[in-house]
User: Which sequence fits this backbone?
């Protein structure tokens, strides 16, 4: 069976994991995440419930991988972007960190 090389990345604010994996050419995202055993490293996060993507584009767990794909596991946002902007506006700041007058 032929193999391909992919990357798997997951990050929390205080900890990041980036792995290069060699997997079956017909592997899908779900299988690679499961077989990587990344869940064991992040026991306080239910990785199976998080959104996933390849190179910044959200994909379904059954997406078949290609050589060089980078699987990204997206952690939940602490604040929705609209709520974050609203809170910053209340204190006179913008998302870029500049003050707004």
Assistant:
């Amino acid at each position: 069976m032929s193999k391909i090389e992919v990357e798997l990345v997951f990050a929390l604010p205080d900890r990041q994991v980036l792995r290069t994996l060699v997997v079956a050419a017909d592997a899908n995202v779900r299988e690679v995440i499961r077989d990587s055993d990344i869940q064991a490293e992040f026991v306080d996060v239910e990785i199976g419930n998080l959104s996933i993507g390849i190179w910044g584009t959200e994909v379904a767990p059954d997406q078949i991988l290609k050589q060089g794909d980078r699987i990204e596991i997206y952690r939940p946002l602490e604040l929705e972007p609209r709520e974050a902007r609203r809170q910053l506006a209340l204190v006179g700041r913008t998302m870029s960190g500049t003050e707004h007058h």
User: Anything to note?
Assistant: Strands lie at 3-12, 15-24, 51-54, 57-58, 70-74. The chain has one domain: 3-90.
